[in-house]
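Project standup — Tuesday

K.O.: blocked on the structure for the chain from last sprint. Re-posting the sequence here as requested.
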Amino acid sequence: MTTRASSALARCADLPAACGLKHVRMLPARMPARSLVLSLVMSLARSLARSLALWIALSMSLLMAPGWSAAAQQAQPSARQASSVQDVLARRCVVCHGCFDAPCQLKLSSPDGWARGASKQKVYDSARLDDAPMTRLGIDARTVRDWRQKGFFDVTDTSNGMSVLEQLLRAGRKTSFELGAPLPDGLDISPLRKNTCAMPGETRDYLKDHPQGGMPFAMAPLPDEDYRQLIDWAADGAPAPPTSAGPPEDAARQLIAVEDYLNQKDLRSRLVARYIFEHLFLGHLHLEGDDPRRFFRLIRSRTGPGDAPDEIASRRPFDDPGGAFHYRVVPVEGVLLHKEHIVYRIGPDRLARYRELFQDADWDLDALPPYSTAAGGNPLSTFSAIPARSRYRFLLDDGLYFVRSFIRGPVCYGKVAVNVIEDRFWVSFLDPEADLSVTDPAFLKAAIPILELPVARTDGTISERLEGFLRLGPVKYQDFRQSGYARKYEAEGGPGYADIWDGDGSNTDARLTVYRNFTSASVVSGFIGSVPETAWVIDFPLFEQIYYNLVAGFDVFGNIEHQLTTRIYTDSLRREGERIFLSFLPPDLRMPLHDSWYRGPLVSLVNQWAASPLDNRSPTAIAFQTAHPKREFLTRLLRIAPRLWPQTDPINRCSGADCAAPDTAAGQLRPLTAKPAPFAKYMPDIALLLVEADDHDAVFTLVHDKAHSNVAFIFNEDLRREPDNDTLTIVPGQLSSYPNFIFKVAEARVTDFAGAVTKMRSPQDYISLVAEYGIRRSDARFWSTYDRVQAALNTQNDVEAGLLDLNRYRDPKALDPLESLFGFSFSPD
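H.V.: unblocked you, prediction finished:
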C-alpha cells in the first residue's frame, strides 16, 4: 500500500464521516482487525459507487473547460487547500506556535516557519554563559538548507510516511483526558517546560513516552472540520498558500516616498534616517489610509529600491551594517500576533512631520558618528547633533507606540524582565519646555558621559562593569539631575501642572496606564483603574534610556550577563521615573511615600547602593487642596485642558452618576473593584469575561493587581508578595496578549458571577467558580469560546488587533489540603 493510501485510510479511521463511511461509527468496538478492514473496504466501495456518476460528469466538464490542463488539475486542489487552511492554522496552531517561546521554535505563522521546521535549541535560557545563535525567522537564514545547517529539522516531509506534524496532530486527537476536567497530574503546561522536540524517526518513541504530547498540546480536541483540514494539509506535505499580490498603486507610491525620504544622501538626512530606523525597526508600519490588515517593516538592505531587498541581519539595529546599504520597506509576512503587533502609522502626513522636526530645525553636522556597540549604548551622544527638542517631540508624537515597544518588545516570556515594575502604574511626560535636557544644551552635554547603557561596556570584569554602569552611573546622574532641577525650581518656585505635557491639545498618548501581568505586560492610553500605588513622569533622557536598554539594545539571544545587567539597569530607570513624579508633590510627603514603595528586609541597603538621597527640599508650585496630594495630582492631570481623557473610570474610580449604571454589565461588575479585596488573590493575572447577549458579545478584562512590599530585587518575588492587599481592575475590552483564563456568563447572570467572585475565601471557592463559569483548556467549548473572544478583539480595533497567544492559559487545580493548612499563599498561576 502506498504512503498516500495509508494516510488516506488513517484519515478515514479518525473521521469516518469525512470519507463517506457513515456506518463505521456503528461497528462493534472489539471487531477483529480483518473484519474491520473488510467493513472499511466495503463502505468505501459503496461510497465510491454512489459518487462515480457525479465524478465522471464533473471530470468531463472540467476536461472540456477552456484552458484546462493536467498541470492545472494537479496544482489547483493544493492551492485551494493551502489557502483555506490558513485560517485554521492561525486559530488552532499559531496561538501556541507564533512567538520566540513557541515549543521547539516551531513557528506556524507563515510558510517560511513550517518549512524551517523545529529545533532542540532553546531561545530562553537564563543560565547560558555565551550568546546563543540568532534564529529570527526571515532574517537570520534565507533558505531551508541554511536552517538545516543551524540545527532545524523537517516537520512536514511525507516521503517516508506520515510527517512529524501529521503524527502529532493525530496524537492530539487521541488524548484521553476527560473533557471539562482538570488535566492529568504530571502534565506540565508551563511555558518553560522541557520540550523533547522529536525529530523525524523519533516521533513514535516520543509519543510512546509522552502519550499526551500531541497537538494541540493539553487542550480540547479540535473541531472535526478544523482537524480534517489540518490533516489533509499535513498529509499533502503542508503546501504554502498562493503568493499574495503586491500593494495597490496608492500604497506603492507611499512606500516609494518613505524610501526616498530615508535614503537621501546629505549628512543631516542620513543621521536622521539612522535615528528613525533605530526607533522603528521593531514596528509594524501601517500606511495612512491603507487596508487595515496590511503592514510593513523597515530594514537595512544591501540592495536599493528597484531590486529585491537583501536584509542585513545585524544583532542590534545600531550595529555596523558592514558596508553600503539602503533603507527599505518590506511587507510583514504571516499571521499577526498581538504580542508582536506594535503599530506605527506612516505616510505623507508623517513625512511632513519629519521634515518639520528634523529638516526645518537649525543644526549642523560635519561628520557622521560611527557604528559601534559603544556608540549605540549611548544614543544621547550618537545623535547629539540633532536638536534634543526634535528628538523628544518625535518620541512624544507616538508615546503609546514607544512605551508599547518597551512592554511588548522582542521578549515573549519575561517574568524576570517585567518583575522590575509594579503591577499597575500611570505614566505621564515632562513637557519639552520644562525639560532641562531640551531647554539647556549645556545640561544635556554634561549629562551625556554619565548616561552609559549596559550594552556599551564590553571591557573589564563583570564586577567592574556592574560598578560602573549599575551604581556609579545612575547614582551620579541622579545627583547631577537633582542639583540641576533644584536650581531651576529655586528660581521658578517648583514644578507645576504646566510642566506635565498635555498632548498638545490632541494627543491621547500623553497619559498611559501600564499593567504587569506576571510574565508579560500591557499598556493602554489614558489613566485606567483606581489611583495606583506608584506613577512615573518620563523626561527626554529617561525616555531614550528605557528604549535603548529594553528595545534597541536588548538581545533575546544574549547571555546571562546581558540579561542580568539589563534587568538591574531597568531598576535604576524605574527609580528615576518615580523620583520625577515625586518632585511634583509636597517635599515633606516625598520620603514617606517613597519608603512605602520600598519596604522589607535589605531594601534600605539596596537603596543606599543604588540611589542617591531623595530631594525633600525643593518646592512644588502646586497648592494642594486635599489631604491626598498623590491622588489630587494624578486625577487633576485628567481635568486640566485639553481634557482628552475621561476624568473618571465608571467601573474602578467613580462616584454617583459618574459610575456605570447598575443595570449594565459594567455596573454589575463594580463590586469586584472593592477594597479590601480578599478574593482577588485567587484570580489569574489576566482573566477574560465573555458576557453573552442575544445580539452581541461583550468582553471584559479582569486584571489581578498583585501587591508587593517592593520590586527592588530580581529573585524570590514570592517572598515580597502581599496577597492580602491584592486588588482587581475591570477593563471593558481586551488589553493583554496572553489570557490566563476565560470565564463565560449570560448577560442575565453577571450579578451572580460577580457575587461568586467576591465571596471567594479559599482555593476551593475558586475551583467552584471555575466549575460554574470557567472554560478549561479541556472544555468541549474551549475553541468556540476562544473564537468569540478573538472576534471581539478584532472588532475592538481592526488595525491594532492581533492573534492572542494561549501559551499562558492555565489549568486551575485545587490545592493540596496541607498547603491550605499551613497557609501558603495561593495563585492559580
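K.O.: great, moving the ticket to review. Confidence is low (pLDDT under 50) at residues 1-6, 16-82, 816-829. The two ends are 49 Å apart (CA to CA).
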